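Sample A.
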Amino acid sequence: MKKKALILFFLFLTFFVSRILYINLSPLSSGDVKTYALYSYFWQIGEKTKKSPYTIYNKYILKKIKHAKSESSKEKLSHRQHIEYPPLAVFFTLIPGYFINNLSKKKNNFSFFLKKYYLNYRLLMFFIEIIMFFIFLFLLFRLVPHKSIYAHILYFISITLTLSVVSYDRLDLVLAFFIMASLASLLLLKSVFLFFLFLAFAINFKLSPVVLLPLWVFGSLPYSKVRRLLFEKQYHSIIFQSVVQGLYILFLCTLVTFPFYIKYGLDGFRFFAYHSERPVQIESFYSSLLSMLAVFGYPTSSGMSFGSVNIYSNLSQAFVDFTPIVMILVSFFTTFLIPYCAYKNKFFFQKLDNKSKSIAEVFPSQFISLAVITIMGSIISFKVFSPQYILWFIALTPLCFYRSHNSFLLGLFLCLVFSSLSTYIFPFIYKKHIVNYGLGPSFYGASVLALRNILFFSFFIFLIRNLLWRDHKTMISVSNKNLSEK
C-alpha cells in the first residue's frame, strides 16, 4: 500500500514540477495571450469610461488599419475588427487582468499590464489543469482496473506535457475542463443538471461542443426506462424524452448567454460573422485532400488571412458549405452507436436493480469513447484544425482503454506521435515551413501536416474499432459490474 502511495505521489510531483517549470518559460511570440490581454485591458478601460469594450476594441483595430503601411496588412487587420470569441470566452480572458490594477495614462502602461497578465494567465491555466488532473484521477479509479492505473496516470502526464505549448497559451484547456467536468458530474456525482450545465458552458465557450448534444441527451436517459420502452416498441416515448432533454440543454445554453446579450447586445455575437467568413485552413483535413490533388496538377493557391495560412481552390467553398452537414452526421452517428453496441452485446436484455441509473452510467467507458470519437470526428469535418483542438479530448483518451494492454499501448503511441507532431508544427516549424513567407507550406511542412492528419485519422478509426469489436465476454463482465453497482 505504501509503495503504491509513493508511486502515486511521485507521478503527481512529476506533473506538478513540469507545469511549474513551464509557467516560468518565456511566452510564445505568436501566442494568443497578448490578444487576451488586450481584451482585458480594454474591458477595464470600458468600465472606467462607461464605454462598450467592444467599441473600444473596434476603434483600436480601425486605427491600426489606418496606419498600416501595406494593403496586405490592412486586409489582415480588417478580419480582426470584431472579437472572434463568444462572450463567455472573452469573459474568461478578463479574469487574469482583474488582479492587475495599473491603468494609468503612461504610454508604456500596456507593456507593464501585458507582463503581469502573462504570469496571471498561466497561473490560472495551471490551476485549471490541476483540477482536471484530480477529476481524471477520480474517473480513473471509478472506471479502470487498479493494476493499470499508474500506467494511465503516466500516460496522462506525458500527453498533456507534450501539448503544454498550446495548453498555456490558448483558451482550449478551459473547454477541455468543461467537457471533463460535465462527464464527471454524471459519472461521479450522478447529477444530470451539472452534466447539462457544463455542456452549456462548453457550447457557450466555443460553439464546437454542440456536436455532443445528441450524445449527451441519449446518455442522460434512464437505462431501465429506455430498456422497457424498447421492448414495448414505444419509440415515440423515447423520442419525446430525448426532445425534452435537448430543450433542457438549449434552455441552459440560453440562460448562460442571456446576461451577455443584455449587457453587450449584438456586439458580443459578431464572432459568428468572423468564423463564417474563414476559408479552409492549411492544417485541416480538407486542406490535406486539396494538397494531394495539387500533386496531380489540380490548381490550388495559399494565402494569409484570419491569422492563419489558408488554401484556395474551386473546391474550397464546397468544403466550407459541407462542414455543418458532416458535423451533424458525425454527431448522430456516434449517438446511435450506443444502442447498436448495447444490442449487439445483449446489454439491453439485462435487468438493472438501480432504476435511476442513466445509460452513460451503465456504460461509462463506452460513453467516454463515444464522446472522444464525436469530438475527433467533428475536428476532421472542420474547415480549421489548429493544434490546440487536440486538447478538447486528449485527457479523456486513457479512459477509453480498460480491456487490452495492447490496445492501450497502441493508442498511447498514436496519441503521443500525433500530439508531438502538432507541437512540432506549432510553434517550431510553423513560420518557416507552414507560413513560408506567405507562400504556403513547403514540401517538408506539407509532409509533416499530412503525417499528423493521417495518424489522427488512424487513431479515430482505431477508437471506433476498439468500441465495436471488443471481446464479447470482457464487455459483458465490465457491464455486469456497472449494472450491479448502486
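Sample B.
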Amino acid sequence: MTTRSLAFMDESGILGGSTQRFFSLGLMKMQMTGPFSDAAHRILDRAVSCIPGAGPGFEFKFNAVTSSSLPFHLELIDAFFGQPEYFFCAFVMDKKRVDVNWQAYSGSVWDAYLSYAKMVVKHNIDSDEEICVVADYLGKPKKSSKFFEAELAACVGATGPNPGRVFNACMLDSRSSLVIQAVDVILGGVRHSFLANREPGVPRDAEKDAISIRIREHVAQKTLSVGFTNQKPHYFSVWEFSP
C-alpha cells in the first residue's frame, strides 16, 4: 500500500567558499503534521509572550538562539522527540576532508546544492512511498535554468519492484513553517557538534552547546559528530558525507 509523506528540508552552513568548514542538509519526514504543529504553535505563543522584545515575527533559529529564547528552543526539540512517528536525517559535509571535492563534480554551488538535496531525498524514500518535499527558500541564481522544485520532483527512491518517488516539491520562507524552523534548530545542533569536535579551539555559545546536548540526550549518543542511525523509538540518522 502506497504511503504519502511530507519531507521538510533546510540547509545549514555555506557550501561555497572556505569561511565555513561544514555544510549540512536536514530532512524531517512525517505523514501527519497536526500533532507536532499544534505543540510547536503552543510553544511559539509562550515564547512570544515571555521573551523580551519578541514579536509576531519571532522565529526559532539555531543561529539566533539567546539565553532568553533557549528554553523554548529546547521545548521545540522535546516536542519533536515526543512525536513517535517522525523521522530525521542530518547530512553533514566536512569540506576539509581530502576526499571531499564537490567542485570537481558540479559546475556551480547551486548545481552542487541541488545534487546533494536530491541525494538526501533519494536515500530517505521508503519503498512504495510518495513524498512531497517542502524546503526552506533558497534563491535560484538568475543564470541557472534549474529550479529546485522541478529537480526534486524528478527524484525516485531505491531500485526495486515498488521504488518510492517524490510527487511534488516547493520552497517556503521559513517564517511560514514552524516545522522548517524545527529542522533548522535540530540540524544546527548536529552541525555544531561537528564543529565542537573538530575545531575545539573555536569559541562557542553556551546556548548552542545546550541544543546539541539536548539532542544528544534524546538519541542516547555520546556525540552527534559521528555517523549513526537509530531506528527506534525515533528514526534519527547522522550521515557524514564520504564520496
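B remarks: The radius of gyration is 18 Å. The chain has a mean pLDDT of 93.
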